[in-house]
Design brief:
Blueprint lengths: L1 H5 L16 E6 L2 E6 L3 H10 L14 H4 L3 H12 L4 H10 L4 E4 L2 H6 L1 H5 L3 E6 L3 E6 L22 H7 L4 H9 L4
Antiparallel strand pairs: 1-2, 2-3, 4-5
């Protein structure tokens, strides 16, 4: 949208939001934490939860417009506080203050999260050769009937059906098979 309105090529921001600060991944002693303190009221709650309400009066951090050019300093001051305790602690503190946040998981942590299990995001399809094969279900749930039903077809598994639909002659099919068209 930025480019469409002013035709300026946006610079890479990593996990940072282009128009809000702090709204990004923050380093922790035991990993990373995503914090989404967009808007002034959430920023005030965030600063208070981190034990530094005075940062709201700091001219570098008082408003979003002032925080954006001072992101480096803001990140350094926030990460200094966040490094004093665990991700679990800060998620509890920030959520209690109404600040959107969450841990940044590695894959093992993500698949072990109870919410992933509750949502049924990992589904299994049975294959005669491979056994039960795990698949990732779309996180959008319309109803319980939509699920992974089968593994991906093997190379050439549906050739006969496809050739039939294409109304290929026996000679055309023999030519394709000779060319090892799968």
């Amino acid at each position: 949208m930025w480019w469409l309105t002013d035709h300026e090529e946006p610079t890479r921001q990593g996990s940072r939001h282009r128009q809000n600060a702090p709204y990004q991944r923050m380093r922790r002693a035991d990993g990373y934490l995503m914090i989404g303190a967009a808007g002034e009221s959430i920023w005030v709650r965030c600063a208070e939860a981190l034990g530094h309400k005075e940062r709201c009066d700091d001219p570098r951090f008082a408003t979003t417009r002032q925080r954006l050019p001072n992101r480096g300093a803001l990140e350094a001051t926030m990460e200094a506080v966040l490094m004093t305790d665990t991700t679990e602690h800060w998620v509890e503190v920030l959520e209690a203050a109404g600040v959107p946040c969450g841990p940044v998981y590695n894959y093992q942590q993500m698949f072990a999260d109870p919410h992933v299990g509750h949502r049924g995001l990992v589904q299994y399809a049975t294959d005669p050769e491979l056994g039960d094969v795990p698949h990732i279900r779309t996180p959008v749930k319309i109803d319980g009937s939509i699920r992974v039903r089968a593994v991906a077809p093997k190379l050439g598994q549906h050739n006969a059906e496809t050739f039939d639909r294409m109304r290929l002659s026996e000679q055309d099919i023999e030519t394709l098979q000779a060319q090892r068209v799968e």
